[in-house]
From TrEMBL:
Domain PD-(D/E)XK endonuclease-like, first and last residues per copy: 19-152
InterPro entries: PDDEXK-like_dom_sf, PDDEXK_AddAB-type
Key words of the record: ATP-binding, DNA damage, DNA repair, DNA-binding, Helicase, Hydrolase, Nucleotide-binding
Native source species: Pelosinus baikalensis
Protein name as catalogued: PD-(D/E)XK nuclease family protein
Gene3D superfamilies per record: 3.90.320.10
Highest taxon of source: Bacteria
Pfam families (UniProt xref): PDDEXK_1
DNA repair among keywords: yes
């Protein structure tokens, strides 16, 4: 009887562990992707994983140790998600992972397709002078921006 209880505990433990974190397999590494619909985009995700159920998850590696996720990185991963969805015709998770130099990773919620499309049109409206650009609340975002001369 105690042997059956031990076997049951081991099976339960294995099952709980397997449910905690999805088993991820590399699906795509640094592959260039391009779409023209709904908007023209291109990019090269660092990694795309596949879960046991076939869902794809986008990921990006950062060489810094500081584990802060920036809005621009969420946008980047969200664009990758849209690229993967459109080119692979497979379900893609609405979250992704940022991996840091110290091997830690952070899960981030990704933007919806309509938000990416809105950013795309806003960008071109700013470049075309149809919309007035504004500086980010955090001046560090603007430091390397090639369009900071457009802002008020």
């Amino acid at each position: 009887m105690s042997f059956l209880i031990l076997v049951a505990v081991i099976i339960l433990y294995w099952w709980l562990c397997s449910r905690r974190k999805p088993k991820l397999s590399p699906y795509m590494l640094e592959q260039s992707l391009q779409i023209n619909v709904p908007i023209p985009l291109c990019g090269k995700p660092d990694v795309v994983w596949e879960t046991r159920d076939g869902t794809l998850i986008v990921g990006d590696y950062k060489s810094r140790e500081k584990q802060q996720v920036y809005e621009s990185e969420v946008i980047q991963l969200s664009v990758y998600k849209l690229l993967v969805e459109r080119t692979q015709k497979r379900p893609v998770a609405d979250y992704g992972f940022i991996h840091f130099k110290n091997r830690n990773m952070k899960k981030v919620c990704l933007m919806k397709e309509k938000e990416i499309i809105a950013l795309y049109y806003r960008y071109w409206n700013v470049i075309g002078g149809e919309v007035v650009a504004y500086a980010a609340n955090n001046k560090n975002y603007c430091r390397y921006c090639s369009h900071k001369h457009e802002c008020n």
